[in-house]
């Protein structure tokens, strides 16, 4: 394995998790992403920065936003981008995860973007390949680029992150987005809360550095940011909520519950949204309060910044043959 790149603004070989990243590295991504937001609003969005580089998207789980935004990010920076269709690949023939990754690595791919249902699977691959690896979501563990794009959205809207009160609400137990957000927001000085029914609150979640609530109004009271999360039924074994109606009644974000947050509080959601389950449609579409579409826009810029920084490190470390 190639070592991390000391001296760089983002001194890491891979982006596998937010946990363990220091504020200067996080801020380097956010600051660079700000410049890409502007570039993406220009008519000419394309640069030759990554010309000759190859980016491979390897998604073992469904994705709309994350996969497309990595594809756009790579293309806007001039890289060749390949989307592996996992269902028609040799994975369907029983090839192991490591064999698949080693095969792709042998094709001299520069950046591998991986999403997988198992927590830790992306790290397993990163330890074996000599390209840069970005975790696009591994099981219930982490989704680092989502937390970075959330932070960028917040910072551009409110001008800061430090001192803000942020409530992550919904299915905390299965959410890699919540975990990455807790680490990142804590590192940048926000005060983080998680709000969920007890069945969806991991026992030791406070140890990650957040306050836990099982009452929605109490949880979002006085908050600057209300982040809603989808019920990840695909990761649930057995019923953890009595019914969708019950869940919406007590934990779905509607105007009545939102009234407990600060008057200028903004509403976020990583998508995909289940309208009428964790969030009321009107609230989700409220152009004054909801920044859900801005989050999607920031996703492209943040991923461009990550690709830019990680490929600089590839240059710093000559690739082993
Ligand atoms: C999230 C994910 O995949 O973890 N979505 C995303 O990347 N935008 C959240 C989810 O699936 O609910």
What does this structure look like?
- Helix 1 (about 25-40) packs across helix 5 (about 145-160) and helix 2 (about 65-75) crosses helix 11 (about 290-315).
- This protein has a 5-stranded parallel β-sheet.
- By secondary structure, the chain is α/β, with parallel strands linked by helices.
- It starts with about 20 loop residues before the first helix and ends in a 5-residue tail after the last helix.
- The protein contains 11 helices and 9 strands.
- N-carbamoyl-L-aspartate binds near residues 143, 146 and 270.
Task: List its salient traits.
single chain, 321 residues, alpha/beta, five-stranded parallel beta sheet, four-stranded parallel beta sheet, 11 helices, 37% helix, globular, binds N-carbamoyl-L-aspartate
Helices and strands, with pairings:
Elements: H1 23-41, E1 54-59, H2 65-76, E2 80-84, H3 97-106, E3 111-116, H4 121-126, E4 132-138, H5 144-158, E5 165-169, H6 176-187, E6 191-195, E7 211-213, H7 216-220, E8 225-228, H8 244-251, H9 255-258, E9 266-268, H10 281-284, H11 292-316
Parallel strand pairs: 1-2, 1-3, 3-4, 5-6, 5-8, 6-7, 8-9
Helix pairs in contact: 1-5, 1-11, 2-11, 5-6, 5-11
Helix content: 25-40%
Overall shape: it is globular
Low-confidence blocks of residues:
none
Give the tally of β-strands: 9
- The value of Rg in angstroms is 19 Å
Q: Tell me the strand order in the biggest sheet.
A: 7-6-5-8-9
Helical/strand content category: alpha/beta
Bound molecules: N-carbamoyl-L-aspartate
Tell me the series of helices and strands, N- to C-terminal.
HEHEHEHEHEHEEHEHHEHH
């Amino acid at each position: 394995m190639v070592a991390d790149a000391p001296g760089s603004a983002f001194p890491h070989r891979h982006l596998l998790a937010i946990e363990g990243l220091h504020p200067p590295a996080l801020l380097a991504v956010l600051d660079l992403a700000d410049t890409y937001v502007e570039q993406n609003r220009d008519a000419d969005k394309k640069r030759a920065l990554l010309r000759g580089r190859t980016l491979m998207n390897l998604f073992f789980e469904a994705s709309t936003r994350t996969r497309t935004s990595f594809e756009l990010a790579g293309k806007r920076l001039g890289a060749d981008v390949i989307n592996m269709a996992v269902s028609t690949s040799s994975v369907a023939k029983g090839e192991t995860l490591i064999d698949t990754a080693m095969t792709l690595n042998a094709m001299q791919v520069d950046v591998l973007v991986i999403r997988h249902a198992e927590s830790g699977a992306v790290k397993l691959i990163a330890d074996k390949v000599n390209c840069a690896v970005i975790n696009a979501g591994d099981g219930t563990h982490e989704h680092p680029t989502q937390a970075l794009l959330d932070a960028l959205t917040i910072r551009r809207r409110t001008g800061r992150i430090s001192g803000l009160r942020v409530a992550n609400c919904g299915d905390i137990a299965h959410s890699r987005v919540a975990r990455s957000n807790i680490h990142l927001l804590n590192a940048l000085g926000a005060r983080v809360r998680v709000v969920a029914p007890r069945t969806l609150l991991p026992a030791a979640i406070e140890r990650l550095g957040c306050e836990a609530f099982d009452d929605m109004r109490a949880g979002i009271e006085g908050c600057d940011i209300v982040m809603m999360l989808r019920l990840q039924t695909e990761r649930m074994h057995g019923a953890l909520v009595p019914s969708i109606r019950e869940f919406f009644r007590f934990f779905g974000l509607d105007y009545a519950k939102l009234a407990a947050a600060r008057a200028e509080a903004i509403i976020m959601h990583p998508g995909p949204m289940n309208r009428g389950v964790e969030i009321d449609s009107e609230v989700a579409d409220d152009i004054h309060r909801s920044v859900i579409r801005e989050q999607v826009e920031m996703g492209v810029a943040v991923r461009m910044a990550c690709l830019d920084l990680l490929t600089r490190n590839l240059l710093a470390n000559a690739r082993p043959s």
